[in-house]
Amino acid sequence: MNENDNFKNEMYTSIPSKIDDYLSKRFVRQVDWYDKYAKRNMLKFYILQALIIISGALIPIINLYDIPSSDGAISTSNITSNNESTSISEDESDNDSNEATLSNLNIRVLSSMLAAIIVIATSFVQLTKAHQSWLLFRETAETLKREYHLFSNKAGHYSQSKLSEEQRNRLFIDTSETIMAQEGSKYYLLRRQIDEDQKPETSKDK
Q1: DSSP 74-97
Q2: pLDDT tens string 35-85
């Protein structure tokens, strides 16, 4: 049983009956949603960052395997061999040179593919704002959980003796909705930032 399951079980055993509907139909579902998408964005961010780091580390290693051409072997054989042996040596040298050229081409292609992976992964990180979304959803989920614990234990601003049970319930609902609304505003600004980042590229295409 994970932390979120413990949290839901605690809620269902301790919630006041008057706000049972709000907690079960609204509050718990929202906390579940924030938990789910916080984990999803965290996983997305880590996978993309791992691709960037691994690809970047492999490029200089792969580029070390630059196979030299065997052109020098041809000139040497031309000087020291007779016509027949020279012809055979030239053929062998040509084959070696072709193999070296093909190997170097494969290395350059692989290096270019790794560089393309870095560009694509970096673009996805910037486009999806996976890191910022992960932190935003996690912060909201933990803030809501903290608010519930204050409410259920009559602590913090719920500890005022002048508050009736009904007032305390309404205060909890108002505070929870305010937290969710703040998250919605922050997420909207985050999406607007993505749109603003894409505007120059769109205008260039036009």
Answers
A1: HHHHHHHS-HHHHHHHHHHHHHHH
A2: 999 999 999 999 999 999 999 999 888 888 765 554 444 444 444 444 444
For residue 59, which amino acid is it? I
Residue burial 156-173, b: 16+ Cβ < 10 Å; e: rest: eebeeeeeeeeebbeebb
Euclidean distance between CA atoms 4 and 35, whole angstroms: 8
Helix or strand (DSSP H, E) at 8: helix 3-14
Distance CA 68, CA 70 (A): 7
pTM score over 0.85: no
Give the burial string for 21-55 (b: 16+ CB within 10 Å, else e).
ebbeeebbebbeebbebbeebbebbeebeebbeeb
Give the amino acid at 204: K
